[in-house]
Write a structure and sequence with these properties.
seven-stranded mixed beta sheet, globular, about 35% helix, single chain, 12 helices, alpha/beta, about 425 residues, about 15% strand, 15 strands
């Protein structure tokens, strides 16, 4: 006899209560009730082939067996996902603490000041690293954050831009491929035309309303985008940047070289990779866009007694304002991870964050020099953590050998591998 059946513990009517309700409405069974209420045309004719029910204990054992089939390798693929060190104090007190589990930004500010403080820390960290005036309380992941940036810039076009029919959004071909895929999907219903290409070769036209760049780029290069931004501004084209947050501890922040929006992934700030995410994204922008930012912004206010208090200052979801005025129906579904990221920054402080970023870059530089001394061509010239190497006919052999040794590299193209160094 099974003693740990979910049906016995489920919060709902018991078997005797179900029978009593069925008798009350005059049917003999649940199947009979379904036959009388659900039209035959939309009902499945055969039984679902789901197998016998498992107890919770049996199911957990099954999951462990399936999970044991995974080959857990060290990942050096990069593209927004990196090995990181999660401080034990954050793991114990936030990641594994049920008090922080909720997926949403707290609605009731009067009983959630501590969690609002943690989110404010996240926003402040993003502002400091990106060089932008405002940041929201996190988004789902980098790809959707870039899509939200595109949508915001499109909806916020000025009258002249709308009048000239500007609906083209330029995407650098060095943006992460998963981000480009999401941009393609989101552009269709909005009537936006994507133009994907080399940022150096772009000829600005009056049809381009916005653009997005990767910093550092997909190939690992740290480009100087100053000329591109200058041309964009001269042509009234907004510039969004998908940036690596850790690299901004060393590199010039996009806010200082003219970006209008900065988005990206925060995973490498102490959040385990979790087989690919998603992981909390950040979204920072200029003050003039504050009423168009997707999601929410936590602000500092005062209560009725004049004391410092935190609240959700700006909310642009359909639940909070008139549907036709909403720019999004998203919420901060990654607030647990955003809180971890903010606490990672608090735990380390600015000096240790710079030290971590410097160590990552130093390890990449050591690797680059070692590869050159081994006679291997390193294609990336100015890098933070990612190298592309040309191995020619030896690439496949090298890839298989590193895989067997427990390391995942990126297969860029025949003959070329990518290696991204982490903390």
């Amino acid at each position: 006899m099974k003693t740990d059946r979910f049906s016995d513990r489920h919060i709902g009517p018991s078997s005797s209560e179900t029978e009593k309700m069925l008798r009350k409405i005059g049917v003999g069974s649940l199947n009979e009730l379904i036959e009388q209420t659900v039209p035959n045309a939309i009902r499945r004719k055969s039984e679902l082939n789901v197998g016998a029910a498992l107890t919770e204990f049996d199911y957990l054992n099954h999951l462990r067996k399936v999970g044991a089939k995974n080959k857990v390798l060290r990942s050096y693929i990069g593209m927004g996902y990196y090995g990181t060190i999660l401080p034990s104090v954050i793991q114990r007190n936030i990641l594994e603490n049920p008090g922080w589990y909720t997926a949403y930004t707290p609605y009731q500010a009067e009983i959630a000041q501590g969690r609002l403080e943690a989110i404010l820390n996240f926003q402040t960290m993003v502002i400091d690293l990106t060089g932008m005036p405002i940041a929201n309380a996190s988004l789902l992941d980098e790809g959707t954050a870039a899509a939200e940036a595109m949508a915001m810039l499109f909806s916020d076009r000025d009258r002249d831009t709308v009048k000239r029919g500007a609906n083209v959004f330029f995407v650098s071909d060095e943006v992460y491929p998963q981000t480009i895929d999401i941009l393609r999907t989101r552009a269709i219903p909005l009537g936006i035309e994507l133009q994907i290409g080399n940022f150096r070769e772009l000829k600005f036209t009056d049809k381009i309303f916005g653009s997005v760049l990767q910093y550092p780029a997909l190939n690992g290069e740290v480009y100087d985008y100053a000329d591109f931004v200058k041309q964009a501004k001269a042509n009234k084209t907004a510039v969004a940047v998908a940036a690596d947050l850790m690299s901004l501890a060393l590199l010039t922040p996009p806010g200082e070289w003219g970006a209008d929006v900065v988005v990206g992934n925060t995973q490498r700030f102490g959040v385990p990779m979790g087989y690919g995410g998603p992981h909390a994204a950040f979204f920072a922008t200029r003050d003039e866009y504050k009423r168009a930012v997707a999601g929410r912004i936590i602000g500092v206010s005062v209560d009725a007694r004049g004391r410092r208090a935190l609240r959700m200052a700006l909310q642009t979801r359909e639940q909070h304002i008139r549907r036709e005025k909403a720019n999004s129906n998203i919420c901060t579904a990654q607030v647990l991870l955003a809180n971890m990221v903010g606490m990672y920054a608090v735990y380390h402080g600015p000096d240790r964050l710079r030290s971590i970023a410097a160590r990552i870059h130093r390890l990449a530089a050591i690797l680059a020099e070692g590869l050159r001394r081994a006679g291997i061509t390193v294609l990336t010239r100015h890098f933070f953590d990612t190298l592309r190497v040309d191995l020619g006919s030896r690439a496949l052999i090298a890839y298989q050998a590193t895989s067997e040794a427990g390391y995942n590299l990126r297969q860029v193209s025949p003959g070329i591998l990518g290696i991204a160094i982490n903390e």
